Amino acid sequence: MNSRYIFGIRSGIHIISLDITAAHLRRACRVVSGVAERGGLILFVGTRKGQDRAVVKAANMAGGCHLFERWTPGSITNGHQILGRCRMRVVDEFDRPIPGYENELLERPSLKPDLVVCLNPLENWVMLHECGLHGVPTVGIIDTDANPTWVTYPIPANDDSLRCVQLIAGVLGKAGEEGQKRRRARAEKGDVTYQPVEFELKKAEENDVKTGGDEEAIHHAGGSG
Fold first, then answer.
1. What is the DSSP-derived secondary structure letter of residue 112?
2. What does pTM read for this prediction?
């Protein structure tokens, strides 16, 4: 399945074509940049020894989150139970924290990532499977011993090389940073890519009032008999 990525074999070692790696990396950069530009949440994952610094740096550049320890199964499927105590905050279109919404956040379910970037898919197939079940797109470094169908956007490369992984993580983090810059530049012109928090909370309150009114009508109808 990975034969189309292989340039040749030398001393029994498969060599991945750099042209193919570059093409897939450019595509992944467009995806990361686009998600960041739309204010999406990007999760960078790398759980092998030595990958933690690359993961944290890329996430900071892209304004996302990072994970360099073992993935907890069910973090997406049962996120409210597993991640219920994780701290969330409300920010404006310029990523500045907005105080006063702490109580509302306590009742909201944990957020799902809009994109997951995985530097070592072989050790994180459970997470990738969970992302697939919930429609979360994924970017992953795929070596010759990994299945490219595990991720949405594979990047053929040597995941055993820490320098290679650091380079790819840095390029993807830079793409996310560029997307964030474009989003903030558009926000300065009044072009916001998502609904303001005031609108979302007002809509949620209206839905709660409507639901409560429907339940009260049902209760009175049941009691009148």
1. P
2. 0.77
